[in-house]
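In the laboratory, one determines a bound structure by crystallizing the protein with its ligand and collecting diffraction data. In a computational setting the workflow is compressed into a single prediction: the sequence and the ligand go in, and a structural description comes out. We illustrate the idea with phosphoenolpyruvate.
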Amino acid sequence: MPTHTFPPLVAGNWKMNGLIASLKEVEALKEKLADANPRCDVMLCPPFTLLSRMNKVLGDSGIGLGGQDCHWEPSGAHTGDIAAEMLADIGCTAVIVGHSERRTDHGETDEIVRKKAAAAHRAGLVSIICIGETIDERKAGKTLDVLSTQIAGSLPEGCNAANTVIAYEPVWAIGTGLTPTVEEVAEAHAHIRKELAAQVGGAEEAARVRIQYGGSVKPGNAKELMAVDNVDGALVGGASLTAEDFFGIISAAYL
Ligand code: PEP
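The predicted complex, in structure-token form:
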């Protein structure tokens, strides 16, 4: 049985959404969470432009702040990129790396993701490393092989339960309203847990690594998905943009 050293993590990925006015949703979320004491950690990952202001709004609420991506170098001539150290400097404690939208839109390979995760750890950040199969890969029966390859390729040396979170996100479930069955989620998460052992120095440490499910998590399906074995929280896209939906997910699964 996993030893739950760390509570589940429900993280909101705002992607390329949100203006300064959107911070009212963060104020509302803070209010809703103030006396709620959920059995999970909560984090928001807004676009870079909102990190600093959001950090101020979050204050001492206990809601964590994360980036959505980082470069692997600590500084240098990389126009438009952000270093992990810059995220740490501005108050982030984590960064998402290898999201399928980055893998697709920016051609990020497992090797690039591995370098980014290593950079996150170098800067003292938790890396939230995203993996997941496409619909063609699932239909071809390759889901578990794809996950094994991504785990072997995307995790740098030195990963452990304190510095790494895995987000299992079937690409076909992201933003589509589709979700895998609970049996499919259970199969994927059990496989990820098993494969992690080789990456984090054994099954005991692997049992402590948080494995989030991501892909069309909503208030209406969160309880069922979060109750699946080896699911330790959620990475939430669209439904993290409003306090009502994001809190709805947290309260359905962890209150
Ligand atoms: C995501 O992009 O990480 C995600 C899970 O998106 P959505 O919840 O909108 O499917």
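The CA atoms of residues 14 and 46 lie 5 Å apart. Keep in mind that any predicted model is a hypothesis to be tested, not a measurement.
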